[in-house]
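User: Please run a holo structure prediction.
Assistant: Happy to. Please share the sequence and the ligand.
User: Here you go; the ligand is flavin mononucleotide.
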Amino acid sequence: MPASATIASAMTAPAQTSPPTTPDATSIRLSVAPMMDWTDTDCRVFHRLLAPHARLYSEMVHANAVIHGDRAKLLAMDPSEHPVALQLGGSEPALLAQAARIGAGYGFDEINLNCGCPSDRVQAGRFGACLMREPALVAEGVAAMIAAVGTLERPVPVTVKCRLGVDDDHDWDRFRGFVDTVADAGCRMFVVHARNAWLKGLSPKENREVPPLRYDWAWRLKRERPDLQVIINGGIASLEEAVAHLDHADGAMLGRAAYHDPYLLHRLDVALFGGALRPRQALLRELRPHVEAQLARGVPLRHITRHVLGLYHAQPGGRAFRQVLSEGAHRPGADWSLIERALAATRPSAGLAA
Ligand SMILES: Cc1cc2nc3c(=O)[nH]c(=O)nc-3n(C[C@H](O)[C@H](O)[C@H](O)COP(=O)(O)O)c2cc1C
């Protein structure tokens, strides 16, 4: 059924009528964070090749954009990406419900609500991290989304990504109250970016670095609410750290480390789910059909190669690899042969070192 045909029924859907669904417990063990301008469909297709079992997240898309914008672009997704979540921004329950239904119609496996973004634009729109102060409104939004997508033939779970609090609000009971209120509305999974968001005085970038991380709060949440799926996010930079979190929570979500060092994703996938490590160049060559299909659609090569620049992070030849791609991808007619040249610029293959 085309997504547009489902909008009216989403608007009139009754309050939640079936038990909330949850994402499957295996894929949530490892996930790649939603990142604006980064985790577009090209990025996710690449990450999927590296981490066949991980859960992937889209960039945040505002509910209004989903409803009124260029859906073919905003909700572009390749079938290889599953399981993949659509992250929505917004706070108006009816719009969120409508957008969630459209997202589910496009095949996304989860609808995630952003309650963690601190940008000024987002604050002005009364969504993102400032929603941590409005648990009742978030609960209403979640209930409306579940009513819209939880009862589909293929029910789609509705999840929330949040912070610990905002500004200098370090009150465990308030954080716990937020989670309890939203869980009562049917949300079974919380991705906890384990630091506060400071709504005044810090840029979004600083807001990912300056407020101190408090993993203990996310772990405590899992201890006190073992019935909920709790995913830890924030500052996880190595395989060992990610694996250690799994003793305390249901999953580890990596953002910047996965993007800047995508081979870490591959190592994590193998460590958590088994299989043999594969060389970087073999993994990258699997991207060729996607690259060629996108080029045929008119997508410039640089839109795709920007996501693979970190593949040889801290490896011999890594700099040359990046240089060949960065310099060549802007040239008219750039095609797959550039990627082969970048691979050739790395050191000759020596088993997994390649
Ligand atoms: C470039 C960039 C864009 C981001 N965009 C989003 C977003 O759209 N939605 C969201 O919930 N978080 C967003 N984040 C935050 C990440 O999802 C994640 O919570 C944060 O980077 C902390 O995880 P990390 O330390 O593993 O990177 C973004 C982060 C970065 C670096």
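Residues 135-149 form the longest helix (15 residues).
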